[in-house]
Amino acid sequence: MEFKQQVISALQPVLGDNVDVATLTKLIEVPKNSEMGDYAFPTFILAKSLHQAPQQIATDLVAKIDQAPFEKVVATGPYINFFLNKAAFSQVTLQEVLTQKQTYGDQDLGQGKSVPIDMSSPNIAKPISMGHLRSTVIGNSIAKILTKTNYQPVKINHLGDWGTQFGKLIVAYKKWGSEAEVKADPITNLLRYYVKFHKEDVAHPELDEEAREWFKKLEDGDQEATALWQWFRSESLKEFQKIYDMLGVEFDSFNGEAFYNDKMDEVVNLLAEKHLLVKSQGAEIVDLSKYNLNPALIRKSDGATLYMTRDLAAAIYRKRTYHFAKSLYVVGNEQSEHFKQLKAILKDMGYAWADDIIHIPFGLITENGKKLSTRQGRVILLEKVLNDAIDLAKQQIEAKNPTLANKDQVAKEVGVGAVIFHDLKNDRMDNFDFNLEEVVRFEGETGPYVQYTNARAQSILRKSGVSVPDTAEVGLDDPEAWEILKLLNDYPNVVQRALAAYEPSVIAKYSLHLAKSFNKYYAHTRILVDDGQLTAKLRLVKAVSTVLENALGLLGVASPEEM
RNA sequence: GACACAGUGGCUCAGCUGGAUAGAGCAACGGUCUUCUAAACCGUAGGUCGUGAGUUCAAGUCUCACCUGUGUCACCA
């Protein structure tokens, strides 16, 4: 960042009043090809006011610029290209990374403000699928990015532990289930009952009526219904916890839908007080036509509340409890209309903080182009995917590094890392069709590639047998090292971009770039030879490893030291 | 039908706030392990950036229209 300032300072005096600092800062860019320089200033905008060709302007300006702080400044066509002083840049960058270690890239953007994140949110009695993986790992990564920029994330697992599906589940359990089955394998069997219910109710619509009755009982606190609900919930949570442990994700709250049951009346009353509630076809709705949105259902004709009612209660509860700066919802893109409605209603209720409600949508995972559906039993079980990935990682280790210590631990870190990284490396809005081979790939642009790169760096540091000094003179002048140094210097900026867009993929892509540039360097430069630059090279290696581990950490991916 | 998201080489995707010959990875073909982990590196081949207008000195990037795909559209979440 401060190096860009050098460029600005050099240009300002020669530009005079022609360009103000703000536009100047905006115009300065990084050339695509680093052979053209480290920063560039395009002169087109001056052409009109100076009545000269941009090429001519560039040449004239270069002659006037104080070149002292730079390696060189040259005019290339209409561009002024700045080449930074590599020694100074390397010195500053390496020292920053090595002294700040894992705090490198930390920034106080949030001043400790609280940011609840609604994430993961699986449904009780249903398995965690690939769809939940997205919400879980995106939310988890955003939480880590928030912490790094001094916000205080609150990870909320808004469990789907209420709703008419529990009526269905109770009916199905009573008709076709057994206690022994549920105890043996809760999720599998509960899901089986649920799927069977949906098959049967096509021919026997009276089942739906029964389910509605049982859910009503549950809402009214009926003992049998409540006991079953609680049992299903606790068995399910135990199963979920296994997966969260594998993923290394922890939550600050498991307040799900049921938690808001006693907070619904207040919402309905508030809406009524503000005359926002309208009767329509027996139901109570909020009209949102002025926002060009469909009406939002608050209460069904039978008096039961809905998803929207609950989310309103949750939003208000979170504002009161956490006094949030922003309230995030990592929920699939197919629900974007819902969140628009939610914000619109909160705004109509007079809450200025409605604007701080932020939906972070993500694309759909399909299988053979079709949407996954628990109801139809078309589901990709996350646990199975993770286990498959771990098995494949284990095979890979046996083949490539059979003498490795704690193989099982590393296999877990690599396998799970592959799955998480695969999910985070692309723009979160991209849809993707599930393909196991693709997800657990270890070569090319993958998590294991980044992990492997770091393991190589760690290996060198181990074998060097020396402790690398945080401060020392550096004199790395080959272009491959220079690429790495520029990337290292860019990291804080990358973190900032990831935060601004709520995009873990920005971090993931950066880690791939850094890994790639290091592998290139590694392939062409022998590090462990004393050529007078040994210390400098080791410092570079250590800095790369530090930042790779940091970046992987922000994604929730482990960094094994050997693999 | 309305709204939302997407449309870049065979496949999967990059391309930050519009800027200099559009970049990777898979897959294909060829090369590199007696030397720091070949989960790597190097090279070859492959693209009218959905289509058509417009704004601009400059458009993959902004605007509009259209085409295609996916999703959503009141008593599920």
Structural write-up:
Helix 6 links the parallel strand 4 and strand 5. The protein folds into three domains: 83 residues, Arginyl tRNA synthetase N-terminal domain (Gyrase A, domain 2), CATH 3.30.1360.70; 207 residues, Rossmann fold, CATH 3.40.50; 159 residues, Isoleucyl-tRNA Synthetase, Domain 1 (Orthogonal Bundle), CATH 1.10.730.10. It is of the alpha/beta class. The radius of gyration is 28 Å and the shape is globular. The protein has a four-stranded parallel beta sheet with strand order 5-4-9-10, with helices on both faces. Strands 1-3-2 form a three-stranded antiparallel beta sheet. It has a three-stranded antiparallel beta sheet with strand order 6-7-8. Helix 12 crosses helix 13, helix 18 packs antiparallel against helix 21 and helix 19 runs parallel beside helix 21. It binds one RNA strand of 77 nucleotides through strand 8, helix 13, helix 14, strand 13 and helix 18.
